[in-house]
């Protein structure tokens, strides 16, 4: 296997390094290529990108391995799912693997009683499983009673089973994939999403004041969710070395100076499925983005920096934030993402708006940018959307939401002839 650097441009015009792997397929004997993202922008990163080639080759060297293991033709479903999961592990991110592992565990729980042989699986059996999940797929945390699992979740089960059964066909265990022709729900996924939530600028101000008084630790996180549209993983993955200030800002700074304060490089994430994982990659290549700093953001960051300096002086050698995270506990260790979600939910319940989540603040960010006249491509870049269709969908929902709240202009326009109907 060999690897060489190549570059690609995103839809926003930013250029990133990739590694092109060339390897011989052990099944066909033919040479194939695989393109792997480094997550690094081209500017000033060639040396670092070159240093990643050997690690990427090592990660994907399994592609050249000939699989000589003989699979028991009578292998049962639960055991085969375990095998598929283990074989998949080396080619996906740890957080993705943990998500797969959790879903496979739930699938196995349903089939554990009879645990049919893979070769005996039929589309009817799979259809019955999906229908069961749509009616009784999870338990209510308060009552313990079964209740429906969301269509999106059931479709994630189908996606995993589709991959596993595709491999089972390759392994000679099945003639057809038993889930390929099954439809889970009749509508596309976006029709099952919760409605978009858009806060007005006045509502945002009220929310921020509430957090400042009641949950001050959440205030800066909400700030970056609302005005930068950062995902939870991006907020918690933000490091001080990603903050590039050009010069200090004072009240006497000119408007020109205030337009060139610097930028925040979004490159790192902290996620949690089973374990908390930090990663020098983001959700997609498009999620790598440089976002301009503005005066309020500088003030927010300075307040965090000052508090961290005081915490570091207090804890001394016990201070743990060696990686330089912007958001961390007083002693420096980073937050569990699920803890932040729970705390934010608790705060919003107390605020009287339990429907507001940290992620939904991204929608508010989009609505603010739309009102400020930003074009769709610029909003796509600011929010880090891989597909502009996602941006357009939010845009369309917000315009409809705004129009529904607007006054009826036809009343004023027709007022001059209203007397004709007296």
In words, what does this structure look like?
- The protein is of the alpha+beta class and 422 residues long.
- It has three domains: 1-68, no CATH class; 72-193, Orthogonal Bundle (DNA polymerase, domain 1); 201-405, Intergrase catalytic core (hpI Integrase, Chain A, Orthogonal Bundle).
- The chain is 45% helix and 13% strand.
- The protein is built from 15 helices and ten strands.
- It has helices at 46-59, 77-88, 94-111, 123-136, 151-170, 201-214, 219-227, 232-236, 255-258, 295-315, 337-351, 361-371, 376-383, 388-405, 409-414; strands at residues 2-9, 15-24, 31-41, 138-139, 146-147, 243-245, 262-266, 269-272, 276-279, 289-292.
- A three-stranded antiparallel β-sheet has the order 1-2-3, covered by helices on one side. Strands 6-7-10 form a three-stranded antiparallel β-sheet, with no helix packed on it. It has a two-stranded antiparallel sheet with strand order 4-5.
- Helix 2 (77-88) packs antiparallel against helix 3, helix 6 (201-214) runs antiparallel to helix 7 (219-227) and helix 7 (219-227) packs across helix 12.
- The chain is globular, with a radius of gyration of 26 Å.
- The termini are far apart.
- The relative contact order is 0.09.
- The mean pLDDT is 83.
């Amino acid at each position: 296997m060999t690897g060489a650097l190549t570059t690609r441009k995103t839809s926003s015009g930013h250029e990133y390094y990739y590694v092109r792997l060339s390897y011989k397929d052990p099944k066909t004997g033919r040479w194939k290529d695989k393109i792997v993202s480094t997550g690094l922008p081209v500017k000033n990163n060639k040396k670092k990108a070159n240093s990643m080639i050997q690690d990427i080759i090592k990660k994907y060297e399994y592609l050249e391995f000939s699989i000589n293991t003989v699979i028991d033709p009578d292998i049962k479903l639960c055991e085969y799912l375990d095998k598929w999961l283990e074989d998949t592990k080396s080619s996906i991110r740890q957080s993705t693997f943990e998500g797969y592992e959790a879903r496979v565990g739930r699938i196995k729980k349903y089939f554990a009683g009879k645990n049919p042989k893979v070769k005996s699986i039929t589309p009817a059996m799979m259809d019955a499983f999906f229908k069961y999940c749509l009616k009784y797929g999870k338990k209510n945390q308060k009552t313990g009673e079964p209740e429906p699992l969301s269509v999106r979740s059931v479709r994630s089960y189908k996606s995993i089973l589709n991959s596993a059964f595709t491999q089972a066909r390759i392994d000679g265990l099945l003639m057809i994939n038993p889930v390929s022709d099954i439809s889970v729900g009749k509508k596309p996924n976006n029709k099952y999403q919760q409605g978009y939530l858009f806060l007005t600028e006045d509502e945002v101000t009220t929310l921020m004041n509430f957090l400042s008084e009641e949950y001050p630790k959440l205030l800066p996180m909400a700030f970056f969710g609302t005005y930068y549209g950062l995902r939870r993983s991006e907020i918690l993955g933000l490091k001080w070395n990603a903050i590039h200030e050009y010069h200090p800002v004072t009240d006497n700074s000119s408007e020109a100076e205030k337009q060139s304060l610097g930028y925040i490089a979004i490159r790192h994430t902290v996620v949690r499925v089973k374990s908390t994982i930090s990663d020098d990659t983001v959700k997609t290549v498009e999620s790598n983005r440089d976002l301009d700093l503005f005066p309020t953001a500088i003030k927010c960051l300075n307040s965090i920096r000052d508090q961290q300096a005081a915490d570091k002086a207090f804890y001394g050698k016990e201070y743990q934030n060696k990686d330089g995270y912007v958001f961390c506990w007083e002693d420096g260790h980073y937050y569990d993402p699920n803890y932040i979600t729970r705390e934010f939910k608790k705060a919003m319940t107390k605020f009287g708006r339990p429907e507001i989540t940290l992620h939904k603040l991204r929608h508010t960010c989009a609505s603010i940018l739309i009102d400020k006249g930003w074009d769709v491509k610029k909003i796509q870049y600011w929010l880090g959307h891989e597909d502009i269709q996602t941006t357009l969908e939010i845009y369309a929902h917000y315009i409809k939401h705004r129009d529904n709240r607007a006054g009826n202009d036809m009343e004023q326009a027709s007022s001059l002839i209203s007397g004709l109907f007296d």
